[in-house]
Amino acid sequence: MKKTIALVLMALSPFAFSAQLEVSRTNVRANVPGSDNTTAYMLIENLTKKDVRIVGAESDVSAFTELHSHKMDGDTMIMRHEKYIDVDAGESVRFAPNGYHIMLIGLDKRVKHGEKATITLKYDDGTSQAFKFDVIDPRKAAK
Q1: In this structure, which CATH number among 3.10.50.40, 2.60.40.1890, 3.40.50.2000, 3.10.690.10 belongs to the domain 17-141?
Q2: Beta strands 76-81 and 85-87: pairing type?
Q3: How many CB atoms lie within 10 A of CB 74?
Q4: Which runs of consecutive H residues, i.e. helices, occur in the chain?
Q5: pTM value?
Q6: Percent of the chain at pLDDT exceeding 90
Q7: Model confidence over 33-63: pLDDT tens digits?
Q8: For residue 45, how many other CB atoms are within 10 A of its CB?
Q9: How far apart are CA 33 and CA 111, in angstroms?
């Protein structure tokens, strides 16, 4: 009986219906003094047979967390808020400088090299998935 209840509870968990993404190369840029915003980068791989749409994000270190992209408009680089980002089945999407990234807006405190942050991706099926990100200061990481 206990096994049956455990199986039913597992089947009803939000992750039972969600296509889980593999996320690696996670990092948040340490913010400079005087700035209360920063960016996060990662590599997302969809190893499933189902397309996944990321519709939002939240973080444990900022008041607001948004999906963004950089696009060239003539000679000008423009940053845009994205309502969603699709990760097709069997494909990967890189979040990197001058491309997709996560904006952490209104940081609760200065994030410093060596710390950790949690960013939760929200999917269009109502589920979510949390990931740990390393905070890096590119000046210190290069040494």
Answers
A1: 2.60.40.1890
A2: unpaired
A3: 6
A4: 2-12, 138-141
A5: 0.81
A6: 71
A7: 889 999 999 999 999 999 999 999 999 999 9
A8: 16
A9: 10
